[in-house]
Amino acid sequence: MKTKSIYFRYFLAPLTLLVAFSCGQNSGDNSGLEIGDSSADNGTIQLNTEQFSSSSMAWGKLEKSEFSEDITVQGAIRVPVENMIDVTTYYGGYVTGLELLEGQSVKKGEVLFYLENPEFILLQQNYLEAKSQLNYLKSEYDRQKTLFDEQIASQKSYLKAEADYQSTRAKAESLKRQLGLLRINADQLQPESIRSKIAIYSPIAGFVTEINAVPGAYVQPTDVPVRLISREHLHIELMIFEKDATAIKKGQTVEVRVPELSSEIFIAEVFMVGQSINDARQINVHADFKDESKESLLVPGMFVEGKIQKDPQEAISVPQTAVIESEGKMYVLVLREKNQAGFSLEKVEVETGRMVDGKIELLPNAKLSETDQILIKGGFNLI
Fold first, then answer.
1. In sequence order, which residues have a C-beta less than 8 Å from that of residue 13 and are 6 or more positions away?
2. Is the pLDDT of residue 262 over 90?
3. Would you say residue 110 has pLDDT above 50?
4. Based on the domain organization, do 23 and 140 belong to the same domain?
5. CATH number for the domain including 177?
6. What's the whole-model pTM score?
7. How many distinct structural domains can be found in the chain?
8. pLDDT (average), residues 289-306
9. Backbone phi, then psi, for 256, in 5-degree steps?
10. Could you count the other beta carbons within 10 Å of the beta carbon of residue 330?
């Protein structure tokens, strides 16, 4: 049998090199790790127990690990649609009391600005007039109904009284609803409390993102004087190419990096996958952050880079330190014989696959079995 002998040799200085060379020729001193070839190479390596211990080598076996491929994606930080608010008014008017700045935080129910319009006065006046007539018209309607039932009054008088009462009642109710849109409490409205100015309140707690009006400007009901955004519940919107669309599922893990925060890694989870492909042959995928406390570091609109982990698959693996590369090929060292002198190892060529958490996948190999002992540490010196 052709074997490879292992020798110790230290290259400390030219003089030492000369001495070591002489000793290597005249003695059998095995004080280093150098492999000497014989005439025929059958892939067997001899290793004594002293060399095994001094190089801190270790044995291991084939094991099953879960591997998953990553899909590289890009996207942006977004907020839900319900957290993006265009502050508009039901009636036009002149803006007063606007003292906001872009980026300013606002509380829910806080006054953003005031709107002034003479039409507000007219609405309140018409409501109070209609309300004041209701009592009279109601009593007249009841009187005419009684007379009509007793066949004293004519049907025409009864129907007119009923029509006057019901139309005024409808008018008062309509005006009350309109005042409600202006946030004027009609039930508490009195002639002396009529006003021409109404307050516009913030519907959410958030931040001002856009201001499109100035004090004194007249805004129409279709205008957007102020835009607000709430940072609550930020999420990630990712763009997935068509070829990867079928591999994305709810619950998959997403590892996210923000270029502006290169040191931070955010972990998210897919919670919604788009059901249609856009013109760019992409679908939208939405992911939620697992640790919402880190959302404070982010700003809506930030560009992100991410990796979506596909569903894991089980495969045979060994620690990455067990695989040795030599002349463009990959090998593992398998224990074939053990005796008092040491160990006999076979160099087995393998094909590798995916890597994760220090483990590397080994593709099926007829020369390896689950019972084999494999050198998982210290073998890089042997090939």
1. none
2. no
3. yes
4. no
5. 1.10.287
6. 0.61
7. 4
8. 88
9. -120, 135
10. 15
Last residue within a domain, chosen from 313, 347, 364: 313
Question: How far is residue 93 from each of residues 13, 117, 126, 225, 257, measured CA to CA in Å?
Answer: 92, 5, 19, 11, 46
Overall average pLDDT of the 190-210 stretch:
94
Contact (Cβ atoms closer than 8 angstroms) between residue 316 and residue 354: no
The DSSP call for residue 195 is: -
Average pLDDT over residues 260-271: 86
At 103, the amino acid letter reads: G
The answer to whether residues 330 and 352 touch, using CB atoms and an 8 Å cutoff, is yes
Closest CA to 310 of 233, 230, 255: 255
Amino acid type, 93 = G
Give residue 228's Cα distance to chain centre.
22
Residues 299 and 241 in one domain: yes
Give the tokens for residue 299.
């700003």
Structural domain including 263 reads 71-81+231-313
25-29, 130-134, 152-156, 280-284: which range is least confident on average? 25-29
- The answer on pLDDT for 23 being more than 50 is no
CATH of residue 298's domain is 2.40.30.170
